[in-house]
Design brief:
The complex is a heterodimer. By secondary structure, chain A is α+β, with helices and mostly antiparallel strands. Chain A contains six helices and five strands. In chain A, a hairpin with a 4-residue loop joins β4 and β5. In chain A, α4 crosses α5. Chain A is elongated. Helix content of chain B is about 45%, strand content about 25%. In chain B, a hairpin with a 4-residue loop joins β9 and β10. In chain B, α1 runs parallel beside α4, α5 crosses α6 and α7 crosses α8. The radius of gyration of chain B is 65 Å and the shape is rod-shaped. The chains are: A alpha+beta, B alpha+beta.
Chain lengths: ~220, ~550
């Protein structure tokens, strides 16, 4: 092989190496050797920083935050907690002087909804029928009371049949459960260390940055 | 004091060196040690090195050819162009010959002008041998005919390696021919007796005038007659060809065979005679008479040193090869430098930014590690905030889509006429609206109460599509269904159940029904609510 040909081959190899460099499994680089790793990592840094700030803001008013968190977890628990729900419904019905009985609870499939936007995100939805008898006023009161329950309960339909002195009604109710933040739920299963509450221990899993990219 | 110059003639294995002071030859020396290369080395070693001028070496070599050619300004400026022109005129192998020449009218070579010149070629190995013998001493090797000067006419050179005839005109070699008889070396080879190499010795004796070698003398005479015959043929050929051959038969004989007495007789037999110009005789006065003819070539080399250079000088093949190698090496270095520059350029364009990027990435990773450590301290709280956010979003989404049901019930019952008996109330959430169907009956056998009810419903804010879906009379009563749609966003949660549905009696029209504002005009059309007793009586009636 002549010298000029060797030089040509060397040049071709050099150019090919430069062109192939981004595709070699050596770096987090993309086309033309320009690595987008720095930008991506910088975005992760910002995400982690925002998360830290969010946590720090929560810590500025620990009492309020703990209260809100407790209310949210009561309103939308991890499990259906049917016994507690029945107790709440019973208390509401009793206050409205209504006799009542509950139907069988069942999960609500997503097909029941007109569109996915109508479905609360990250939630499992359950349905239960509440048959009541009493007065119309009582029905009105219990409907109002349902909005004030600690547990999130919404009404899908109301049927009332006034009778001779007694009004019979049927309320179709929905209640909700959610896993919330899996890391927080996981932390609840572990011994408490530095959480806000003794029953809400922290997760030791440090974020990788990927966890925050969806924010 | 005149300049001290040296001239050398290489003829076969013999080297003749002449020292001059100006135009005067002051010494000569003939070195014959069996090898021209070694003899040249020895001769040059004796020369002074300080301020030494380039020594011109006149090369006598067989196969030397001279021809007049037309030269251009390009030939004067470019050796390659001159060589191309020379080889075009001389059909010889370029690979085995070396070319030199001279331009007769150098000053005329301007622009497209064409002038006369001469090209001479000699065997490349002979030229290389001379330069090799010179070693690092600065010498200029020229063909013997190019050194001739000082006598316009016919020159007959009887050398060891060649016998040559040169016609000089205007101080320039005008025509040149090597004779087929060959040089004295050929005669020496011919003089070798069978089984011995005594030819050179016999020749040397004959050249010194030793005449007892009759057969040798006969061979010498025969050789000289051949030479003179060829000389005559050549001169006549030139004369007939129009060359400027002098009319007289004067011939300047020089070289190692010029002192042979028989040459004069041979010339005379052909109508020629030997002649030595007066200037040469005077210039060579200090040279032994026996050496003068042989020293003439070296003398002319000394006095013409530098003349017509550089075109008259053969190129040193070794230097040319070294220069070629040097050029190649320079080209290689240039290529390497270009590659290095290319690599540096590519590095600047690609690698440097990439390195910067990687540096930035490393810095960002360090920052990320720091931030992750910071985060680890509050990770639990962060996940709790996320948990709160997710659940709060569920509550908000569910509440936003939910109608304020007490208002819906209040609207259905509160707008009903006093006399109406509601048998069924069904309301179902459909998207952001509530579809309400009321089944009722009135004792009054007219549409008036029903129309009023519908009007009140239509006047209520947030209702739409209010209609009566069925109507029939039955046992003095009218039985009908009322349907309407209610926009959930129109209801506010400041519902006061007691105010609207305070009694078990049928609903009472109100400007504000369950927090749902009612159109004042429509409300004005609505008859004022009668006392509860009246309502009961009317309802029962």
């Amino acid at each position: 092989m002549s010298r000029s040909r060797r030089v040509l081959v060397l040049l071709v190899v050099l150019v090919a190496a430069f062109l192939a460099w981004p595709y070699l499994p050596l770096t987090n680089s993309n086309a033309l050797g320009r690595s987008d790793g720095a930008a991506a990592v910088r975005a992760q840094v910002e995400a982690v920083r925002r998360s830290t700030r969010a946590a720090a803001e929560a810590l500025t008013d620990v009492e309020r935050f703990s209260s809100e968190l407790g209310q949210a977890r009561t309103a939308v628990p991890l499990e259906p907690s049917l016994v507690e729900l029945i107790d709440m419904l019973d208390a509401a019905a009793s206050a409205a002087q209504l006799e009542w009985r509950a139907g069988s609870p069942s999960p609500v499939p997503l097909s029941n909804f007109e569109s996915s936007s109508a479905v609360p995100p990250n939630a499992d939805i359950w349905q239960i029928t509440m048959s009541v008898s009493g007065t119309t006023d009582g029905v009105g009161r219990v409907l109002d009371s349902l909005r004030r329950l600690d547990r999130l309960v919404t009404v899908v339909s109301v049927s009332i049949q006034p009778g001779d002195g007694v009004v019979n009604g049927e309320l179709v109710l929905r209640y909700y459960t959610s896993a919330g933040d899996p890391a927080a739920i996981e932390a609840e299963q572990e011994p408490a260390e530095d959480g806000l509450k003794a029953d809400q221990p922290p997760s030791q899993a440090a974020p990788t940055g990927e966890d925050f990219n969806d924010e | 004091m005149s300049e001290r110059l040296f001239g050398i003639e290489v003829d076969g294995d013999r080297v003749t060196i002449v020292e001059t002071r100006g135009e005067l030859a002051v010494s000569s020396r003939i070195i014959d040690i069996g090898s021209a290369k070694d003899a040249l080395t020895v001769a040059l070693r004796k020369l002074p090195r300080r301020n030494a001028r380039t020594v011109r070496v006149s090369l006598v070599s067989p196969s030397t050819t001279l021809r007049r050619i037309d030269v251009t300004a390009e030939c004067a400026s470019s050796r390659a162009a001159f060589e191309t022109a020379a080889f075009a005129a001389l059909p010889v192998n370029r690979d085995t010959t070396s070319v030199a020449g001279m331009f007769f009218d150098h000053e005329l070579l301007v622009g497209d002008a064409v002038s006369a010149g001469a090209a001479v070629v000699a065997p490349l190995n002979s030229v290389a041998m001379v330069y090799a013998g010179a070693r690092r001493r600065p010498v200029e090797v020229v063909a013997a005919p190019l050194t001739l000067t000082g006598f316009d006419g016919v020159w007959l050179g009887l050398h060891h390696d060649a016998a040559e005839v040169t016609l000089l005109s205007g101080g320039r070699p005008w025509a040149y021919r090597q004779l087929r008889a060959g040089g004295l070396g050929a005669l020496a080879a011919h003089l070798n007796t069978a089984g011995s190499d005594d030819g050179p010795v016999r020749l040397a004796a004959l050249l010194d005038g030793y005449l007892d070698d009759l057969s040798g003398a006969a061979e010498l005479n025969r050789y000289l007659q051949m030479v003179v015959a060829e000389l005559h043929q050549t001169v006549e050929f030139w004369r007939n060809g129009g060359e400027p051959v002098p009319p007289q038969g004067a011939v300047l004989v020089y070289g190692m065979g010029a002192n042979v007495p028989a040459i004069g007789l041979a010339l005379e037999e052909s109508g020629y005679y030997g002649e030595v110009p007066r200037g040469f005789s005077e210039a060579l006065t200090h040279i032994p008479l026996s050496d003068r003819s042989q020293a003439l070539g070296a003398y002319l080399a000394a006095v013409t040193a530098g003349r017509d250079a550089p075109e008259a000088v053969f190129v040193d093949p070794a230097a040319l090869s070294a220069a070629t190698l040097s050029r190649r090496r320079n080209r290689r270095l240039t290529a390497v430098a270009a590659l290095a520059a290319l690599a540096a350029g590519l590095g600047a364009v690609f690698v440097a930014p990439m390195l910067d990027e990687r540096k930035a990435e490393q810095s960002a990773l360090a920052d990320l590690e720091y931030e992750q450590r910071q985060f680890a301290a509050v990770a639990a709280v962060y996940h709790q905030t996320e948990d709160l956010r997710i659940r709060s979003e569920i509550v908000e989404a569910a509440r936003t889509a939910e109608p304020y049901w007490p208002a819906v019930v209040s609207l259905g019952f509160g707008t009903a006429p006093q006399a109406a008996v509601i048998n069924a109330f069904n309301a179902t959430a459909v998207g952001t609206s509530v579809s309400v169907v009321l089944s009722a009956e009135l004792a009054d056998d007219s549409y008036r109460e029903l129309t009023g009810w519908l009007s009140r419903l239509r006047a209520a804010t947030g209702t739409s599509q209010v209609w009566s879906s069925s109507f029939s009379r039955k046992e003095g009563k009218v039985v009908f269904n009322i349907s309407f749609m209610f926009d959930t966003s129109a209801a506010s949660p400041d519902y006061q159940p007691g105010a609207i549905l305070g009694s078990e009696a049928s609903g009472v029209p109100s400007p504000s029904v369950g927090g749902v504002p009612v159109d004042p005009e429509s409300a004005a059309e609505t008859p004022p609510a009668p006392p509860e007793s009246e309502a009961s009586a009317e309802g029962s009636g």
